[in-house]
Specification:
It is a multi-pass membrane protein. By secondary structure, the chain is an all-alpha fold. The protein is about 75% helix and about 0% strand.
């Protein structure tokens, strides 16, 4: 690794894709309202199920993009600054939002407060469904020295193949394997172990290390990637619907293929949209910067409004609730965090201006 290697350059396509995935996450959780109440197979259920399943590639995409961004440079990492930055920008906001959600649940009589519950929720990421992503990505961050050491010394092909095997064997089957090895033992962390997503992380790291050639290869094969995306999207949605009320382990392999094709397709699409652009519109820049906060917070709007419409407004029609919950989740979370970003921007400029005036005196 070279100390004088270039720093990461701005990649607008990654910002667009990051925003797109964050918006899809909101829909996934809004869709849980009708999918949890409508009878399976009804027309309304199917109309919600299709885009819900279509959106299911977003967590693998987030992990892939994290690998890309962290491996775009060969510069040596100051691990103290790296971990301090992740603590401030990833872990502490997550811990704060766990507390906020916990008080929401306590206030609505879901359960009583206990320190054990709070600590368990922090470590397990299971208080609200989408928090598991934070637990997984933090594991990848903690192992950053290993990735930097190993992936730069191993050719991409065998490393990617091995990571795919690890993801399939130890990611999706870890709990079953442990039950065979230790009968009756229940390993409650099996669904938040990073191995399930190792394949996407390793692919992202190599894509970041070879970004120009990766991007060129994707754009060179636009027709093939589009065709594969359409095939596997249709196949994944169809098979997921057919196996919705059953356990089909083989579906995970199909879903991996869909996730890979979806990541490549939307990366390609946003590369085309970005073109040679070197700057983002200010709203796009703000949404990209606040996407993690939007990710953490949007479910609170969904939970509160759905509960309010049921208990206070007595709205039994799930489709009406779905409509209002979706509008509120998108508009509310985006508006709040855009306002927060502009307040920080204004405060930063005001602080800089004040400091400059004071230095002149």
């Amino acid at each position: 690794m070279s100390e004088n290697a270039p720093l990461r350059k701005f990649k607008p396509e990654l910002s667009y894709m990051n925003i797109f995935c964050a918006l899809l996450v909101i829909f996934i959780h809004c869709a849980s309202v009708p999918l949890g109440e409508l009878p399976f197979g009804e027309r309304a259920f199917n109309l919600v199920f299709v885009p819900w399943r279509f959106s299911s590639f977003v967590v693998p995409a987030f992990i892939f993009m994290s690998g890309v961004k962290l491996f775009q440079t060969d510069r040596k990492i100051n691990y103290f600054k790296f971990y301090l930055g992740r603590l401030k920008r990833v872990v502490l906001p997550y811990m704060l939002w766990v507390i906020i959600y916990l008080f929401f649940f306590i206030n609505h009589d879901y359960f009583d407060f206990s320190w054990e519950l709070l600590i368990h929720s922090w470590l397990r990421g299971d208080l609200v469904g989408h928090f598991y992503f934070v637990i997984i990505i933090v594991q990848f961050y903690l192992l950053m020295p290993l990735w930097r050491f190993a992936l730069r010394r191993i050719n991409p092909a065998p490393a990617i193949a091995f990571s795919a095997l690890v993801s399939i064997v130890f990611g999706f089957n870890l709990l079953n394997m442990l039950n065979v090895i230790v009968p009756g033992y229940e390993f409650e962390w099996s669904d938040v172990i990073f191995t399930k997503y190792l394949f996407y992380w390793v692919c992202g790291c190599y894509a970041g290390m070879n970004y120009k050639s990766f991007k060129a290869g994707v754009l060179k094969n636009k027709l093939l990637i589009t065709l594969l995306f359409l095939i596997f999207a249709s196949l994944d949605i169809f098979l997921a619907h057919r196996t919705y009320s059953t356990t089909a382990g083989w579906m995970e392999s199909v879903h991996i293929m869909y996730c890979v094709c979806a990541i490549l397709f939307f990366f390609m699409l946003f590369c085309i949209i970005a073109g040679s652009r070197e700057k983002l519109f200010i709203i796009t820049k703000a949404l990209d910067a606040e996407s993690y906060n939007i990710y953490l917070s949007h479910c609170l709007i969904i939970l509160w409004l759905n509960d309010y419409m049921i208990t206070v407004m007595n709205i039994d029609d799930v489709l009406i609730r779905f409509k209002y919950v979706t509008l509120a989740a998108y508009i509310g979370s985006a508006a709040f965090w855009l306002l927060w970003w502009f307040i920080k921007l204004f405060a930063g400029k005001l602080w800089g201006y004040t400091g400059m005036r004071l230095r002149r005196k």
